[in-house]
Design brief:
Largest sheet: 3 strands, antiparallel
Shape: rod-shaped
Number of domains: 3
CATH architecture of the largest domain: Orthogonal Bundle
Strand order of the largest sheet: 1-2-3
Distance between the termini: 89 Å
Number of strands: 3
CATH class of the largest domain: Mainly Alpha
Strand content: 5-15%
Radius of gyration: 27 Å
């Protein structure tokens, strides 16, 4: 396989041509490391090695770019990178981000669980569902939920007062409150207990 041309793209990468056809592009750093020249012969194995190195470099750069805008779990980041790059390169890039401390699923799980609990007032079941949807490991999810210090009954009473004030007087409203709280991740017996306590307080 013969390198027949290369040039810098508008994106600042080096486009490589082999045997007259475009092969792939790479970061200038990778290009410089390989000291590539027109007319240079590369075996298939060496070409594959070059391509893999170029992909890993691109994956790391893309990962850093993505993380500069928002936080990702390891699985989310790898899934995002795989839209454009090789799976092996993406896995290595994510591993490097973890080494740098830019991706930390354990820390993310706890902070996200606290946010969902305090800001959205979700119950454990809904928090578990949301964290698993983000690709977090089941063990990390359960650990994060176990560390929450919020009082679920207090949260349910707060939700009832703000969103379902008519639940004390109207059976239809009570059913809506029950369904809504279940969707928010609370257990049926917790919701019933909170409703019963409110009714008892009202009767008093």
């Amino acid at each position: 396989m013969t390198i027949t041309d290369f040039h810098k793209t508008k994106q600042g990468r080096i486009a490589l041509y082999v045997d007259g056809d475009f092969a792939f592009s790479m970061d200038p750093e990778v290009f410089a490391q390989w000291k590539l020249t027109i007319g240079q012969e590369l075996s298939l194995e060496r070409m594959e090695e070059l391509f893999s190195q170029a992909q890993v470099k691109a994956a790391k750069e893309k990962a850093l770019q993505l993380l500069s805008y928002k936080e990702y779990t390891a699985q989310e980041l790898e899934r995002r990178l795989r839209r454009q790059l090789q799976p092996e390169a993406c896995a290595l890039a994510v591993e490097r981000m973890e080494e740098l401390g830019l991706v930390n699923d354990e820390d993310y799980a706890l902070r996200r669980a606290r946010d969902l609990s305090r800001r959205k007032l979700y119950g454990p079941a809904r928090i578990r569902q949301e964290l698993r949807r983000l690709g977090l490991d089941r063990e990390l999810v359960e650990q994060a939920i176990s560390l929450l210090e919020e009082d679920d009954q207090e949260k349910i009473r707060s939700i009832l007062a703000k969103k379902y004030p008519d639940a004390l007087y109207d059976e239809k409203a009570r059913r809506r409150a029950f369904s809504g709280l279940m969707r928010m991740g609370y257990q049926a017996d917790q919701v019933r207990r909170a409703l019963d306590c409110l009714e008892e307080g009202y009767e008093d």
